[in-house]
Amino acid sequence: MNKKRPKHLALHLIKLPLPGFVSILHRLSGVILFLSLPLLLWVLQASMRSIETYTQLMEILQHPLSKLVCIGLLWAFLHHFCAGIRYLAIDLHLGSSLAQARASSKWVMGISLLLTVLIGVKLC
Amino acid sequence: MGDGHQPVIDCFDRGKAMLNRVVTGAHYGLRDWLVQRVTAVVMALFVLFVVGYLLLQPRVDYDVWTRMFSNNVTRSFALLFLLSLFYHAWIGVRDIVMDYVKPASIRLLIHVLVILALLMYSIWSVQILWGF
Lengths: 124, 132
Prior knowledge:
The complex is a heterodimer. By secondary structure, chain A is an all-alpha fold. Chain A has helices at 18-35, 37-49, 51-62, 64-91, 98-123. Chain A starts with 17 loop residues before the first helix and ends with a helix. The termini of chain B are far apart. Chain B is built from five helices and no strands. By secondary structure, chain B is mainly alpha-helical. Chain B has one domain (29-130): 3 helical TM bundles of succinate and fumarate reductases (Up-down Bundle). The longest helix of chain B has 29 residues, at 72-100. Chain B is elongated, with a radius of gyration of 22 Å. Chain A binds chain B through residues 1, 27, 30-31, 33-34, 37-38, 41, 44-45, 47-51, 54-55, 81, 84-85, 88, 91, and chain B through 1-2, 37, 40-41, 44, 47, 62, 65-66, 69, 85, 89, 92-93, 96, 117, 121, 124-125, 128-129, 131-132.
């Protein structure tokens, strides 16, 4: 066996097509959401426990840094959500042709970014 | 290998291969594929329910927010959402770790830590939802 066969993993040379980019962002956003689970559960707890912890939480969320984190997590959620819906549709053989899959990956990128901006502006 | 015969695996090697597979391999493919999609649908429905409910309220404050969880149906739906989330996260993280972490020992360590974290989150979720 030829042990010097090329591995084709020169990441800076690989130009991912948009559906591939959406796929890797699906993984990235999933990891981001997983790592933020303790934070999100803590936020849920504070929001429900009492009116005092709720008010305190709302004050913390007014801080510019909290808003930045919120918008980042919002994008991760929206991208993961939209890309996930796209995969469910493809599993049902909806839009699984190459042209349709390329088009829907554009929609996923566009809608998740647009919603992030719209909701982000509304929250700030 | 190049002589056209199947490679011979002795008992020791095969035992080792099976042990590796049992500890870190993905031999539960179809079930997890299905679970990943079912949990995704459960989560999507809950998210749409919460967003829809809150959009229908004239304003959202502490009372409106907690009243939503005041009956056991919504509370159970919320717990179902969180447990689906943790199961979904386990499959996703495990697949990513299997793809990018080669050494079996580190991979196993990460798997154990992720499982323990998700189990603790499950207990915490019950405390959050039924503790107020």
